[in-house]
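testing teh design pipeline on a random one, pls ignore if ur not involved
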């Protein structure tokens, strides 16, 4: 009897142990989750052309969903895609065809993607949701369903004086995309104000008129009023403009400006006369400007301040003054007279004058020369050179320019004749009276192609001596003293 009882106890323990081991194995090795649904799209691989508001049918074939179908998700560029599907009829099935009816938003314009997710129904060992998803991407190209709003902008007055105002209207003839959502305006100059009650009344409508007021700036010229209208569904806007001309109240001043002489020598002077024929809005200011071709101020104007003051506030009269030329530089310049009237309108008259001569004698003739200089080349034997003698001839070319038959006065031949075959004279040009009673070497390229520039030439009116100093692009420098024969 004891033996039997022992046997029963042993068998019971063994069974309990086996049951415990099975539980431990299942805890340590939970069942593997099933594969996600196997899907394929029946649509073409090419992008689908769609129009805003259109309902597009997307078809997905489910070839194997081991855990059974559960739901569908749609993700696109909009926050909450609008769609319906037949998934409710396929819940729990392992295969089938899912159709998604996707409504294209009016605002999805251009390329965008719609991702459709197919979800199964699985849970993990803890009973938590462990569904798997397979996604199919549909590429689309969206187009607007409606034209942009059509409208015009019109100002009651197309021409205004400075600071004046005019009503203007924004006339919307069509806004098919659900009506008007927004109306705004801008202007490049001046200011405007929209009538907010007319804006509010236009919202949501397909046709409407919005009014406003434009105020011209203080400056004359063209002012552009631009309006913008946006529709509701597509958030699509359009623009249209109108132009208002801002003009002066009076015609521009009518006056003549005459010089007694149009050509002067350096330091010379000439009288001028300003005749006011008709300044409709009265004279407010008279100014003068004298500039050469480079924009530099040249010379001076002398006018009695009392004579100018006497013309302020007048519509006609005469003003006499004197222009004195610059004594240092030859030039062609414009003398500009500006009359500003009380309306702020400026009228300009210009006269040209040539400062072209000097009182010095001609430089033409023959000269003995003494030249000293230094070459940067390693070949010349006689380097540096001091007081190299020679002669040159100067010819008058007119307009203050003179040609020297050998501007280097023999030093180039001395340096580079034996070395490089430079055995010829090099002509150069001196300008006399460009700088008052002085000379300057006109920049040129010598026989090797290097540029030669003036480094401080001069003229002695007492002795007639000319000093020519130059440097070339190689770094060679020299100074020659020309003494008249």
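output:
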């Amino acid at each position: 009897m004891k033996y039997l009882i022992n046997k029963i106890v042993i068998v019971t323990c063994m069974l309990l142990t086996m049951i415990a081991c099975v539980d431990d194995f299942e805890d340590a090795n939970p069942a593997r989750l099933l594969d996600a649904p196997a899907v394929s799209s029946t649509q073409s691989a090419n992008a689908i052309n769609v129009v805003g508001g259109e309902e597009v049918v997307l078809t997905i074939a489910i070839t194997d969903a081991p855990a059974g179908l559960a739901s569908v998700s749609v993700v696109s560029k909009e926050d909450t895609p609008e769609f319906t599907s037949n998934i409710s009829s396929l819940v729990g099935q392992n295969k089938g065809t899912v159709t998604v009816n996707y409504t294209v938003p009016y605002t999805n314009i251009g390329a965008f993607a719609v991702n459709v997710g197919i979800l199964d129904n699985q849970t993990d060992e803890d009973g938590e949701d462990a569904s798997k998803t397979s996604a199919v991407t549909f590429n689309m190209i969206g187009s607007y369903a409606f034209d942009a709003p059509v409208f015009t902008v019109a100002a009651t007055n197309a021409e205004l004086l400075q600071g004046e105002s005019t009503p203007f209207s924004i006339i919307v003839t069509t806004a098919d995309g659900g009506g008007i959502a927004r109306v705004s305006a801008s202007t490049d100059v001046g200011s405007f104000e929209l009538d907010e009650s007319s804006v509010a009344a236009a919202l949501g409508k397909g046709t409407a008129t919005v009014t406003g007021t434009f105020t011209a700036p203080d400056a004359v010229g063209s002012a552009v009023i631009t309006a913008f209208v946006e529709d509701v569904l597509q958030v699509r806007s359009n623009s249209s403009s109108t132009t208002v001309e801002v003009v002066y109240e009076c015609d521009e001043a009518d006056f003549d400006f005459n010089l007694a002489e149009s050509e002067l020598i350096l330091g010379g002077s000439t009288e001028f006369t300003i005749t006011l024929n008709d300044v409709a809005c009265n004279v407010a200011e008279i100014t003068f400007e004298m500039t050469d071709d480079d924009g530099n101020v040249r010379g001076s104007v002398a006018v009695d301040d009392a004579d100018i003051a006497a013309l302020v506030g007048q519509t006609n009269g005469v003003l006499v003054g004197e222009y004195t030329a610059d004594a240092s530089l030859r030039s062609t310049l414009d003398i500009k007279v500006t009359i500003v009237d009380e309306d702020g309108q400026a009228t300009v008259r210009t006269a040209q004058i040539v400062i072209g001569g000097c009182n010095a004698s001609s430089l033409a003739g023959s000269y003995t020369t003494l030249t000293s200089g230094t070459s940067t080349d390693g070949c010349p034997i006689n380097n540096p050179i001091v007081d190299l003698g020679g002669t040159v001839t100067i010819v008058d070319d007119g307009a203050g320019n003179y040609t020297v038959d050998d501007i280097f006065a023999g030093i180039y031949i001395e340096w580079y004749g034996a070395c490089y075959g430079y055995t010829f004279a090099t002509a150069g040009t001196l300008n006399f009276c460009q700088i008052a009673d002085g000379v300057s070497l006109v920049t040129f390229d010598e026989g090797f192609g290097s540029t030669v520039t003036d480094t401080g030439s001069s003229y002695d009116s007492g002795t007639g001596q000319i000093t020519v100093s130059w440097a070339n692009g190689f770094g060679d420098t020299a100074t020659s003293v020309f003494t008249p024969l």
